[in-house]
Design a protein that fits this description.
single chain; 102 residues; mainly alpha
Length: 102
């Protein structure tokens, strides 16, 4: 496994090799690289949050459509049950009326 020196090790090595100017340049370059990395991560997180928001909205929409379909099928089933109950009530009423007239 390769050993990567840290930022401070790079600065110290540059200071030993080339003096104060190189050390400051390395420190500034490292700082800029660190800021770029933080900025990139921030934008990546924003993009990920936007994607997750979109997926959440899609999932909510799907669930709402499913609930609407379920409500519609429940209403149809309930109407069929009520129709059967009315038909059975009418049938029993007719049978009761016919039984009394005999």
């Amino acid at each position: 496994m390769t050993h990567r020196p840290t930022l401070l090790q790079d600065v110290a090595q540059a200071f030993r090799d080339h003096g104060v100017t190189a050390a400051l340049t390395a420190l500034i370059g490292g700082t800029v690289a660190l800021l770029a990395s933080v900025t990139r991560k921030a934008f990546t997180n924003d993009a990920m949050l936007a994607r997750l928001d979109k997926e959440l909205a899609t999932e909510r929409s799907r669930v709402d459509r499913q609930r609407a379909e379920d409500r519609a099928s429940d209403a149809q089933r309930l109407e069929r049950i009520e129709t059967d109950i009315r038909a059975m009530r009418n049938l029993m009423f007719e049978a009761f009326q016919r039984g009394r007239s005999d």
